[in-house]
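Journal club side-thread
Mid-discussion, someone asked how the predicted structure for our own chain would compare to the paper's figures. Pasting it here so we can look after the session.
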Amino acid sequence: QVQLMESGGGLVQPGGSLNLSCTFAGSVPAISSMGWYRQRPGNQRELVGVFIISVGRTKYEDSVKGRFSISKDDAKNTMYLQMNSLKPEDTAVYSCNIDPRVGPGYWGQGTQVTVSS
């Protein structure tokens, strides 16, 4: 059984930074991608950024390019989302995802990020 757990959310002022963590337990035989998603109030869940294993590259949603960065520490089974220059419109529940090559993806429970003065 694969479990993902996010941490690091909270309240931050506009222009501030947060670093989210996603730690996962369990074994996924072949991972296709690992990424972060968010669901803003009143909106559907949307992609923030995804690391595609086969090409070793990360794609980001246009509104976060240059501000957000995904990294991972394989030894710690942890993926990070560094968020800089935060804006009120970044307020959302952020969730991490692991997509295996076969079968459904795995999700964490989400962590709330609120950007407000």
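Post-session note: Residues 36 and 96 are 4 Å apart (CA to CA).
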